[in-house]
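HOLO CASE FILE
Compound: 5-O-phosphono-beta-D-ribofuranosylamine
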Amino acid sequence: MTRKRVAVLISGRGSNMAALIEAARAPDYPAEIVLVVSNRPDAVGLARARDAGIATLIVDHTPFGNDREAFERALDAAIAPHRIDLICLAGFMRLLTPWFVARWSGRLINIHPALLPQFKGLHTHRRALEAGVKRHGATVHFVVAETDSGPIIVQDSVPVVAGDTEQTLAKRVLEVEHRIYPQALRLVAEGRATLPK
Ligand code: GRF
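Model generated. Tokens follow.
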């Protein structure tokens, strides 16, 4: 088995990244996490990745100002030496341009803390509570040009319960995230989930 070489892109805490690293420890897992990249130098997840013995890179977006594509070209160049097959976005808080999305088409996946197509965008837990939904969850999907809109790879839900706050709901959903992201990466790495042309 040739394991797919995966880069995880983060901006913060990196708990989904950690779940992927943990899953990829299994000898039969079809992917290895070879690189973690953060656009924020202070991302807590960077230390977690280093502790796990994984190479890390910082590609700070701030020097590029509003030029998103210039940032992405720098990011793309920085990861090139690592011969990356697949990219997992895990709390990576940058909108991507059509250039980057096309370049990595079918090899770029994201986790979103909601049952897509519900609650695209930010503050999903608050919006789920405001909407009064009975179930909420998380989705791993292929990234396409339109934000939070690509084909779904894995999705799972949890109940919303009386007295839930954004924090209690986020915690319950995060457990789902940590379970489904490794499942979804496995499907993509094995070629069992593909982005339709
Ligand atoms: C997760 O809820 C993820 O779905 C969202 O941002 C959060 C990142 O958390 N996009 P972490 O950095 O993986 O802990």
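CASE NOTES: The pocket of 5-O-phosphono-beta-D-ribofuranosylamine is lined by residues 10, 12-17, 45, 90-91, 111-113, 174, 177 (CB under 6 Å). The chain has a mean pLDDT of 98.
CLOSED: yes
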